Amino acid sequence: MSGSSQAWGWHSVYPAPAKLNLFLHVVGRRADGYHLLQTVFRFLGRADWLRFSPRSDGQVLLQTPLAGVPADEDLSVRAARLLQAETRCRAGVEISREKRLPLGGGLGGGSSDAATVLLALNHLWQLHLPRRHLQEIGLALGADVPVFVFGNNAFAEGVGETLRAVTLPARWYVVLEPPVQVPTAAIFAAPDLPRNSPPIDPRDWRPGIGGNDLEAVACARFPVIAEHLTCLSALSAFSPARMSGSGACVFAEFAGREQADAALRQLPDGLRGWVAAGLDRHPLCELAD
User: Fold this and answer.
1) 212: which DSSP letter?
2) Domain boundaries, the chain
3) pTM
4) Quick one: how far is CA 40 from the chain centroid?
5) Annotated catalytic residue 289
6) Does 19 participate in catalysis according to the annotation?
7) What is the CATH number of domain 172-277?
8) Could you say which of 48, 74, 113, 144 is catalytic?
9) Where are the alpha helices (DSSP H) in the chain?
10) Do the annotations mark residue 112 as ligand-binding?
11) Is 107 annotated as a binding residue?
12) Does 111 carry a binding-site annotation?
C-alpha cells in the first residue's frame, strides 16, 4: 500500500491502515486515571477505505454507518466536526467508508479512520494545518489517533501522544480475528492489570523486546483470544504470537510473505485470519506536509 505521490482529490479513495502494537507496557498511572504507556506502533498494509464528497451546506454526513454506532458518536464524523470547529470551516462533507478492520480488535480501526478524515479534509478543504496541529486535534478523539497523523512507525509514550519515529525491518504478519469485541475501557479498568512495568529507554528498544501487559487480562476475560494465540504460536517459529492493543486480534511476525501465507493455510477451519505486510510509513504521510 502506498500513495504519497498520488494527486489526492475529492474522487480519490483514502486508506486508513491498521496498526499493530509490537509491544505494550503499562508503566504507571496519572492522577486523572489515564494510564502511562510505552508501545511501538507498526502500520499494516490492510486498511479501511474512505471516500469524501463535498457539501456546500456545512453538514457532515456518514453514508455508511456502523451497526450499533450512532453517526454522531462515530469517530469519523466527530473528527470532521472537530476540524470544522477548530478552523471555523463552513464546508461540509459526505463520508462513505469500506470497513475492513474489525471493531474492538486492537488494530486501531476507528482511530485510523478519524486520522484519515483529519488528513484528507485538511487537504480537501485547503485548511493547511500543520501535522502537529492535526495530532493535537486527534488526541481529543482518542489516544491512538495521533500516531496515524504522525505518519511514521513510532515508539510512543505518555498516553500515546509522545511519538518518536522508529525504523523497523521488513516483515510480514499473520493476523487472526477472534470472534469477540473487546471493550478497551474494561481492560484498563481491570484490578489485575499490571501498572508498574519498568520503563524502557526508547533508544534501547529493538524488535522482539517487550510483551503486552494487557494480554493476560484480556485472555482471562475472553478465553477465545488465548485459544487463537495458542493456535498461531504453534505455526510461528520466527516469533511468538502476541495480542495487539487491548485485543481481540492476535498476530505473528514472519520474515517473508511465503512463510506467512504458509502459516495462514495451516489454520484450522473456522478461524478468521489474513496476511499483511508491515509498512515503512503511513500511506498518507506526506498529505499534511
Assistant:
1) B
2) 13-165, 172-277
3) 0.95
4) 11
5) no
6) yes
7) 3.30.70.890
8) 144
9) 75-87, 109-124, 131-139, 145-150, 184-189, 215-221, 223-233, 257-265
10) yes
11) yes
12) yes
Distance in angstroms between the alpha carbons of the first and the last residue of the chain: 19
Which residue stretches of 27-96 are H helix? 75-87
33: alpha, beta or left, given left = phi > 0 and alpha = psi -120 to 50?
A: left
142 labelled binding-site residue: no
Strands 60-62 and 92-98, bridge-based pairing: parallel
Residue 37 C-alpha from the chain's centroid = 15
Measured CA angle at 50 (ends 16, 133), to 5 deg: 60
Q: Which CATH class is domain 13-165?
A: alpha beta
13-165 and 172-277 agree in CATH topology: no
- Enter the DSSP assignment of 57: S
Any binding-site annotation on 108? yes
pLDDT > 90? residue 287: no
- φ/ψ (deg, to 5) at 114: -60, -40
Mean pLDDT, residues 203-216 taken together: 96
Q: Give the 3-state secondary structure of residue 228.
A: helix
> Is 92 annotated as a binding-site member?
no
* 268 class by beta-carbon count within 10 Å (0-12 exposed, 13-18 middle, 19+ buried): exposed
User: What whole-number distance in Å separates Cα of residue 71 and Cα of residue 242?
Assistant: 33
Please write the tens of the pLDDT for every residue from 69-99: 999 999 999 999 999 999 999 999 999 999 9
The active-site residue, picked from 19, 48, 113, 213, is 19
Q: Are 105 and 177 in contact (CB under 8 A)?
A: yes
CA distances from 121 to 14, 19, 45, 155 (A): 11, 22, 22, 27
- At 176, list the grid cell: 487472526
pLDDT tens digits, residue range 109-159? 999 999 999 999 999 999 999 999 999 999 999 999 999 999 999 999 999
Q: How far apart are CA 55 and CA 252, in angstroms?
A: 43
CB neighbour list of residue 5: distance below 8 Å, 6 or more residues apart: none
| C-alpha cell belonging to residue 69 | 454506532
The CA-atom distances, in angstroms, between 234 and each of 27, 171, 256, 272, 274 are 30, 19, 18, 16, 16
Give the pLDDT mean for 250-276. Answer: 95
